[in-house]
Amino acid sequence: MRLLFLGDVVGRAGRAAVVGQLPGLVSRWALDFVVVNGENAAGGFGITEDIAQDLLDAGADVVTTGNHVWDQREALVFIERQPRLLRPLNYPAGTPGRGANLFVARNGARVLVINAMGRVFMEPLDDPFAAIEAALSACPLGEQADAVVIDFHAETTSEKQAVGFFVDGRASLVVGTHTHVPTADHRILPDGTAFMTDVGMCGDYESVIGMDRDEPLNRFLRRIPAGRFQPANGEATLSGVAVEIDETTGLARAVHPVRIGGRLSQIEPPFWA
Amino acid sequence: MRLLFLGDVVGRAGRAAVVGQLPGLVSRWALDFVVVNGENAAGGFGITEDIAQDLLDAGADVVTTGNHVWDQREALVFIERQPRLLRPLNYPAGTPGRGANLFVARNGARVLVINAMGRVFMEPLDDPFAAIEAALSACPLGEQADAVVIDFHAETTSEKQAVGFFVDGRASLVVGTHTHVPTADHRILPDGTAFMTDVGMCGDYESVIGMDRDEPLNRFLRRIPAGRFQPANGEATLSGVAVEIDETTGLARAVHPVRIGGRLSQIEPPFWA
Amino acid sequence: MRLLFLGDVVGRAGRAAVVGQLPGLVSRWALDFVVVNGENAAGGFGITEDIAQDLLDAGADVVTTGNHVWDQREALVFIERQPRLLRPLNYPAGTPGRGANLFVARNGARVLVINAMGRVFMEPLDDPFAAIEAALSACPLGEQADAVVIDFHAETTSEKQAVGFFVDGRASLVVGTHTHVPTADHRILPDGTAFMTDVGMCGDYESVIGMDRDEPLNRFLRRIPAGRFQPANGEATLSGVAVEIDETTGLARAVHPVRIGGRLSQIEPPFWA
Amino acid sequence: MRLLFLGDVVGRAGRAAVVGQLPGLVSRWALDFVVVNGENAAGGFGITEDIAQDLLDAGADVVTTGNHVWDQREALVFIERQPRLLRPLNYPAGTPGRGANLFVARNGARVLVINAMGRVFMEPLDDPFAAIEAALSACPLGEQADAVVIDFHAETTSEKQAVGFFVDGRASLVVGTHTHVPTADHRILPDGTAFMTDVGMCGDYESVIGMDRDEPLNRFLRRIPAGRFQPANGEATLSGVAVEIDETTGLARAVHPVRIGGRLSQIEPPFWA
Ligand SMILES: [Fe+2]
Ligand SMILES: [Fe+2]
Ligand SMILES: [Fe+2]
Ligand SMILES: [Fe+2]
Ligand SMILES: [Fe+2]
Ligand SMILES: [Fe+2]
Ligand SMILES: [Fe+2]
Ligand SMILES: [Fe+2]
């Protein structure tokens, strides 16, 4: 089973890359399932219903999010009628939308997608480890789920790696998101879960985490805002990770980064060539 | 001019990788200058005089550090007699040791090495941007320095990228350290400075940032320490970045990650093959 | 009904004040119930079984704690056999000890004591608001409980005040602890709950939050530890709050700070004179 | 010499208290010098030129600020023509306005006022201890200054107390601001500096730090903003500290809290009765 995960889509440049290239990848690589993190898709901050639909139309099966999920307030409403949009699982009880859901892939496999948020240097939400445990218990890999994908949106490498080991052997893939920079440590953990500390963003890398660099630099140097953060508008790099999942065990057989277009070194999964 | 930068050496496994492999790389690649971050070399926490000497003997011209620099208290003393060990520049006035220094490379080039620390989600030190500016002004690239290397030890990708753009065209290389995970965004910035958000660690990656995973996982799950952090002892990956520097301008001609041994995907600079 | 709450007991000086003065206050004021926060009682860090017993022997009915609860590791064990020692309620499921419990006061009243910890600028624990809600629902004021006391151990004034309003009318008293400085904003909230943002510490105030000032000052000035934190050993001020609780409603009729001995201005509840 | 310091003025209610009562206090107590922290005077966020003028007209000699100083962007401009408005001293070089200045009191005394900001759980600015040291050295008590007042705007009690001991004997008064809650630990430190960890706010205390409590409670409970923070509009408590300064030494002879109006217990300096 062929799964692609794309990191945080940032602004117009990021959306253009996804909309322009994902349909071709779905068919070229015969993808069974695609997850895209869309928390920065609307001008860098949040996501609208139209933009979520654009990402789904381009080939995403599920759109995950993170700390920016509610920046566009309409998300609080339309998330209730859009089961393919997830928000972090560990928001308080009563939060609109869902943090985990079961989907059917193109090959018929049942894929559990979990979106959770870290707490180190982030907002204080409920315990993500306990929340992930509960979601996995309700729908275990090899029983109700044929594959399990976890988007763990977090700041520190340590918390992300801890989640990887916590679910090793119980998930097909754990990816970190949020830092907007791809890491080079993709690998299969000892018990079969594919892991990558951060998949990076789909955005213009000639920037400070996807934003035009003037205002971030101004704030670091002067400590006084001079304007808003604006997404950088150069060509985006589509940044993500490709996983070949064993259909009997639901564990990873191969994992490889994907970087297409823009400023970063280009790379594609050799096993789908 | 050929420069190699290796990220945070973690514990015995990291030291074994550096001591075992760096001498061979220096000769195979005809390296002119080598910088190694050694802040976690002593059992994961700090550095001793003997260990610093081991890293220098293995081929490092300079050993940089970060927030763990003083974990072994002897560092406060021996740093005064070891000019090749740097501590973050932006500690208060009066701190033992130096945060920047000029060295002579094997090819005779004068290399300014600056070690500074970020402040976002880190300890509050003096402004690293102002400190770097002062160090660059005192010894500018193309005047007193033929090459400039900056080790910016910081948590967030945004602060590291801001430093990159801040000195673009005024340094040969800016690398981030501290997260212990290599990023895949190595590139040459518009005005000629090679950049990589984090070079990763020289340590065992089957771990939580180089540490045996039991205690980190215990703390995330139970929030109560059950013991000390211990470095993981599996085979380390030597993780760093290779830069080809133009000897007339001091700017980067090529940049490429290095990952040798251990669990990560293996990669070497094609331009030195 | 007469209730006294004393803030964080710090080290030997703090213990001496409690052991020396609390028995006299219990009899002089005819106290029905006494709660003492003991998280810093053992050398400034945590609490031992012997020290907990000393505080109970001196007249405390319950000893609450906070982020330092496990600093003395024996607390993980003896808390299981000491129901009068509470640890923050919002630790993960499975944590030793209890965060809330029902006690019988000298006047026969059933007193629910809840100890919870804030999350702003603190460790990430479970949601304290949800945890307090659950504890109150299980044992509501006016039903299973004749009085309810909440020790909310937190850094920021905003989170503490939010807890006050959250339970207003459902608790007899909400006090903040942790900053080691008494606030002067004791009052009865609109629906009858007595509130004080922080009750301060029982410790020597010629200090930095109860600790000898040399090492804290050293760390602020030099950013490098030069030794351990040691409790200051001058005469402690007993610092707390006195509440007169209506026995029919369980709400507060009067609230007043208590400060006896040491460096701070001296004050006692006029309504018990 | 008689000095009054009033804490953070919050919104319309806080301004009404200052404008309504300060003129009377100046004459009734024959005040020589008045400092008011105005960082929240404009709708809770920042200060405008008109509002600064209102506070000065009401009797303030100097208006200090804190982290909210630039929330009203006009402050970046008018601070340059208003030497009686201070911003934190430890902003980067080149920041508009001043962080310390010498003023002449009604009794002819030269008063150095320093406004600095802490770094623990605050924005990373330059070292406040070094900045205060430099300002004191440039204008020492007993030489160029007859009195020295320091408004240290900070979150933690420890950093504020450390500043107190750091300048003990070199300043007339150190007050903390920012938490919006008055502490009850006013005292004269061993070498003669009056100190109070926080003077509290001039605002409506039936609130969460001066703000209408609905939105703060909503955010703590749901973690999703539902609207803006609005200042609470009930009667404000004028909250501050009164200091009697020895005119020969410039050190404190007496210190006492001031709380007039609103919800808190009422208190006035007995030594000026
Ligand atoms: Fe993002
Ligand atoms: Fe994010
Ligand atoms: Fe490190
Ligand atoms: Fe580090
Ligand atoms: Fe405490
Ligand atoms: Fe505490
Ligand atoms: Fe304020
Ligand atoms: Fe403030």
UniProtKB/TrEMBL annotation, chains A, B, C, D:
Keyword terms of this UniProt record: Hydrolase, Iron, Metal-binding
Binding site for Fe cation 2: 39, 67, 153, 178
Record: residues binding Fe cation 1: 8, 39-40, 180
Catalytic residues as annotated in Swiss-Prot or TrEMBL: 68
Pfam families: YmdB
InterPro entries (UniProt xref): Metallo-depent_PP-like, YmdB-like
Domain of life from the UniProt record: Bacteria
Transmembrane segments: none
GO molecular function, a single term: 2',3'-cyclic-nucleotide 3'-phosphodiesterase activity
Assigned protein family: Belongs to the YmdB-like family.
Name of the protein this chain belongs to: TIGR00282 family metallophosphoesterase
Protein's organism: Pseudoxanthobacter soli DSM 19599
Lineage: Bacteria, Pseudomonadati, Pseudomonadota, Alphaproteobacteria, Hyphomicrobiales
